[in-house]
């Protein structure tokens, strides 16, 4: 299942993440679902992408 827009994302993702991070999550999820074919693995990949990007932003500010 691909997410065509952020409105299609799970509610917990939409409420926890900013619009920019929702975009990142959606892109990472859609890519991972093609690669792995499993929604649970794609979710893990997408959350990891968000966490990594967030950590990089925090380090850039410091």
UniProtKB/TrEMBL annotation:
Tell me which SUPFAM superfamilies the record gives. ChaB-like
The name this protein carries in UniProt is ChaB family protein
Upper taxonomic lineage? Bacteria, Bacillati, Cyanobacteriota, Cyanophyceae, Nostocales
